[in-house]
Amino acid sequence: MDVMELLNWFMGLGSIVVLPALVFVFGMVLGTKPSKALMSALTVGIGFVGLNLVISLLGESLGPAAQQMVENLGLELTTIDVGWPAAAAISYGTALGGLAIPIGLGLNFVLILFGLTKTLNVDLWNIWHAAFISSLIYALTGDMTLSIAATCVYIMMILLFGDILGGVINRFYGFPNITFPHGTAIPGFIFALPFNWLFDRIPVVKNWKADPETIQNKFGIFGQSTVIGAIIGLGIGLAAGYDAAGLGQLAVKMAAVMMLMPRMVALLMEGLTPISEAANAFVQKRFPDRELYIGMDAALSVGHPAVLSSSLLLVPITILLAVVLPGNTTLPFGDLATIPFLVCLMAAVFNGNIIRTVIAGTFYMVTILYITSWVAPLVTQAAIASNFDLQGNTTITAMAEGGLWTTWMYVGLAELFSMTGILSIGVVVLAGLVYVNKILPGRKNKQQHGQDTAAVK
């Protein structure tokens, strides 16, 4: 068995095995006691099992309701959204998929070695996002070199945003030394920034307080996240035309998601905290002037009440948009349960403001539906190349990755300018890494030195 076969076998064990194994290995490398590293790894694995169960509950509950809403609305859309699990399978089913992980590991090591990133990405499973982009570019161009270049640039990009997001994630979610170099979540962060600037300048709107704590204080029990989940579940059930039993069951299931998701995230953080502390101590001992973020799945963020509440509200909005948007061919389905991953970092930009997140999220879903409809032929072509079962569908897509503006940027520039387009992104990303990790810290040190000198005087 060669290295690639061994790596493919390891990744084939699934994320709930791969991530704990990596956590254990990194814990040992960072000097954690074997018993402590093992308990951390198992706790992380258990947390992910629980989180996946809750996400499955969300998908299994929303899927039939969404399908019934679609039937009630009489939708006739030709492109089926098969969801991120299918997109990941398609990505890792191509030759490029097998190369993405060793490329990701190698680039991450080199960039850390030269001080060009603070992000140590242990979330290797989600490098499928890079493989997805490169598979689409290969389906478009048939150029393996161009596709591999896109993989490299994409991985550098998510590491750059991992560096940028570390402070944001610590401030909003309270996760020290954790970041999300996650291809599905990052685009929402960028998309939200101009909306936040705009909201801050609109009279009345800028004063709206709609974070979960404010809502709970104003509405009492009806502002609690579990009750909000039940109310949203009732609303979705009514739109789907459910009977009393169906309404009650969907309401309780949505309330359960709102309660259980944060608890599973807390379990994950319990396992990650010792590793994060060991990583920080390791770096401080050897590189006193540097810090290190542990790159994790954005699943850690989806349990936040603002994220879940906004996401559930966006489910019927997304289906309605699919009906009314001229030119849209995408039938939202598989990735409706993935909306929390799309908006988790938007909620961080808006400081948990649910109204802002839903308004900006609505515009975001408009772009996602159009982009995912545009890229659907390439997704279908990549699926055929990976021997993916289309299950009788002529055209498929995946909203949570195929509809992102980053997908549009990479595929569009590859189509228009070939290698020049991809390398232009690479130059910008490399400049960003240099600025964030070399120039900006130097400026901060000079400012601090100046303040210290002034204090002495």
TrEMBL record:
Entry keyword set: Cell membrane, Membrane, Phosphotransferase system, Sugar transport, Transmembrane, Transmembrane helix, Transport
Main location, first listed in the record: membrane
Compartments in which it is found: Cell membrane
Record-annotated PTS EIIC type-2 domain positions: 7-437
Q: By its UniProt entry, which InterPro entries does this protein fall under? A: EIIC-GAT (IPR013853), PTS_EIIC_2 (IPR013014), PTS_sugar-sp_permease (IPR004703)
Residue ranges spanning the membrane: these are 6-30, 37-59, 89-116, 136-160, 180-199, 219-242, 254-272, 292-325, 331-350, 362-388, 408-436
List the Pfam families. EIIC-GAT (PF03611)
What GO biological process terms are annotated to this protein in UniProt?
phosphoenolpyruvate-dependent sugar phosphotransferase system
The annotated topology with respect to the bilayer is: Multi-pass membrane protein
Q: Name one GO cellular component term.
A: plasma membrane
Domain of life (superkingdom): Bacteria
- Cite the GO molecular-function annotations of the record: galactitol transmembrane transporter activity
Put simply, this protein is called PTS galactitol transporter subunit IIC
Organism, by scientific name, is Vibrio panuliri
The record lists the lineage as: Bacteria, Pseudomonadati, Pseudomonadota, Gammaproteobacteria, Vibrionales
